[in-house]
UniProtKB/TrEMBL annotation, chain A:
<keyword id="KW-0547">Nucleotide-binding</keyword>
<protein>
    <recommendedName>
        <fullName>creatine kinase</fullName>
        <ecNumber>2.7.3.2</ecNumber>
    </recommendedName>
</protein>
<feature type="domain" description="Phosphagen kinase N-terminal">
    <location>
        <begin position="10"/>
        <end position="97"/>
    </location>
</feature>
<dbReference type="GO" id="GO:0005615">
    <property type="term" value="C:extracellular space"/>
</dbReference>
<feature type="binding site">
    <location>
        <begin position="319"/>
        <end position="324"/>
    </location>
    <ligand>
        <name>ATP</name>
    </ligand>
</feature>
<feature type="binding site">
    <location>
        <position position="235"/>
    </location>
    <ligand>
        <name>ATP</name>
    </ligand>
</feature>
<dbReference type="GO" id="GO:0004111">
    <property type="term" value="F:creatine kinase activity"/>
</dbReference>
<feature type="binding site">
    <location>
        <begin position="291"/>
        <end position="295"/>
    </location>
    <ligand>
        <name>ATP</name>
    </ligand>
</feature>
<keyword id="KW-0808">Transferase</keyword>
Automatic annotation (TrEMBL), chain B:
<feature type="domain" description="Phosphagen kinase N-terminal">
    <location>
        <begin position="16"/>
        <end position="104"/>
    </location>
</feature>
<dbReference type="InterPro" id="IPR036802">
    <property type="entry name" value="ATP-guanido_PTrfase_N_sf"/>
</dbReference>
<dbReference type="Pfam" id="PF00217">
    <property type="entry name" value="ATP-gua_Ptrans"/>
</dbReference>
<feature type="binding site">
    <location>
        <begin position="326"/>
        <end position="331"/>
    </location>
    <ligand>
        <name>ATP</name>
    </ligand>
</feature>
<feature type="region of interest" description="Disordered">
    <location>
        <begin position="102"/>
        <end position="128"/>
    </location>
</feature>
<feature type="compositionally biased region" description="Basic and acidic residues">
    <location>
        <begin position="102"/>
        <end position="116"/>
    </location>
</feature>
<dbReference type="InterPro" id="IPR022415">
    <property type="entry name" value="ATP-guanido_PTrfase_AS"/>
</dbReference>
<dbReference type="InterPro" id="IPR014746">
    <property type="entry name" value="Gln_synth/guanido_kin_cat_dom"/>
</dbReference>
<dbReference type="GO" id="GO:0005524">
    <property type="term" value="F:ATP binding"/>
</dbReference>
Amino acid sequence: MTKNCHNDYKMKFSVDEEYPDLSKHNNHMAKVLTKEIYGKLRGKSTPSGFTLDDVIQTGVDNPGHPFIMTVGCVAGDEESYEVFKDLLDPIISDRHGGYKPTDKHKTDLNFENLKGGDDLDPNYVLSSRVRTGRSIKGFTLPPHNSRGERRGIEKLSIEALSSLDGEFKGKYYPLNGMTDAEQEQLIADHFLFDKPVSPLLTCSGMARDWPDGRGIWHNDNKTFLVWVNEEDHLRVISMQKGGNMKEVFRRFCVGLQKIEEIFKKHNHGFMWNEHLGYILTCPSNLGTGLRGGVHVKLPKLSTHPKFEEILTRLRLQKRGTGGVDTASVGGVFDISNADRLGSSEVEQVQLVVDGVKLMVEMEKKLEKGESIDGMIPAQK
Amino acid sequence: MSEKVENICHAMAQLTLREWSAEDEFPDLSQHSNLMAKHLTTDMYSRLRERVTPTGFTLDRVIQPGVDNPGHPFIMTVGCVAGDEETYEVFKELLDPVIEDRHGGYKPSDKHKTDLNPDNLKGGDDLDPNYVLSSRVRTGRSIRGFCLPPHCSRGERRMVEKLSNEALDSLTGDLKGKYYALKNMTDAEQQQLIDDHFLFDKPVSPLLLASGMARDWPDARGIWHNDNKTFLVWVNEEDHLRVISMQKGGNMKEVFNRFCTGLTKIESLFKEKGHEFMWNEHLGYVLTCPSNLGTGLRAGVHMKLPNMSKHAKFEEVLKRLRLQKRGTGGVDTAAVGGVFDISNADRLGFSEVELVQMVVDGVKLLTEMEKRLEKGQSIDDLIPAQK
């Protein structure tokens, strides 16, 4: 057990003296963290030395927004979710629709279980994309890992990815040492990720040592992409233009499973358990870690008074086409699943496929000046 | 550093070392240009990674700002910070060369002298107010027994604030004043402090953020100033305390008098409560950034030098006078309207009186030069020797 002597030193101060001032805060952590819980957990440390103060720092430093509820805490390793469960279980429950500490999560990456999804109307659906994250067992997570670990993850990832062939054959571009030409191409392809600027991320410590150990891998066809050592060890993305979500999901599942096999051979499978599914840095991404979505033209539906209600009932969320926290442009929206934990990958992508199909039908009706009242769905 | 502390450091470090080698962990400093990158070798890294201070500050924490901020080809940043007083001892193998490089060849065996007796300053009450618009002296102080801003916990930071308030509340006369905590400042108070150029805000510089000193903002941060608005203390910004004496015009002597009197009074108030400032005879006052060791003092003026600043020998003159220029927004800003911030370049190896003397004498000379150039006369005979 690693001893965190800084944490021991802090125990000299009372709970009252150390407890954060959360009076102006509006995030999940602030909602849940009482003095009692703080007092109970502050003396603990995970085996790799991650402490309660480390978990909550990002939420202390970022009070949040009156309308957006951020999570306000991160995991530093797989054990964080166990050692700090008294804090994280209620947060998980709040964030993931009442998910209980005794609930079991199901993983289903069998793309054949998806019904339809190959015929979303390309006149409306401009592109389709599925992303998730994966953490490599035996390593600590981005808020906490050392340069040695991060480089170890990068090395393993490169080995795994370079052994892929066929439609997955591709190349790795480390952020450090990218040529200007490569960088411009990656930006033009919308693949490049940059050093995080959001204080939500930087306050957790995940941007340390940038850009050491970070990079982007993609296949030659530019339809399968992996980010290494950004907010999670791996972010895996399958995407293409048009509305063939079935194909995107097939490639996603096949690619992910191939990668997982290779990591397992090295005795470093992905972090997963039957309660939380895939373990990721942010509690909001537990379960499937999956966001499946489309860019879709909904100029009429988006101005309909029931738009938000329809999305809620379909268990979908909207974002602008720049991603989270951006505005939509020209009536084009990013529509994706709202859930992550408590339903499987297939189920979540099914919701997107079915929901988008319905919304496109609604859009067409509204174009013709017809009512959509008869089409409003029940709560899924 | 006692043997007992050495043993603790070693034992703690052994417990926290993981299975990665020094080579696996050594930062990539190939694009870097800062003092930490200049001096940190792989051998040094492998030795120092096995040590940790009694409060748990590690080598990786010391160097993190320098790893995250490669630096600038023309500005040499320090690239490392202290987390507590012991950092300078436990990691001396790295910090001594950094200190030597930054502070003009200051050796590990050198002694620093402290002189806060304002009577020892000669002149300084007559800098020409037609040229010298304002005068200011600042320094920092750390309270012994507490971790420094990159490392301190909320409990420690609040205690530093509490102790500082107690000390400052008991100041009287010209120094009597009030504390404004950042977190419950009213809009009116905030506006006034901005207008007075007193308010400090959450740091945005990545150099500071990477060290961890902005955690929990604005908890336990605040500004104290006297009723006359000539003496100001920042609590828990980059250092535990930053102490500033300032006023309009060229009476640096009065500014320095108040500075010394106030500082000495605050120090004795802390001592009454059983707390002292971090100080030792080698490094003088111990502060978060190695660049501020010694006196931690920057004394300067805002002065009009529209002609002098365009003279071919301006930089050379400043260098010889051991002065530096900044824009009137402070470090890394540009001069506006020919008005420059002129201050001492040194911190360590000279006393407070010596540094302020250099500013006083240097500014007097620069004013003479400016007047000559206004009249179209040469300044060649005025160029000083290297101080």
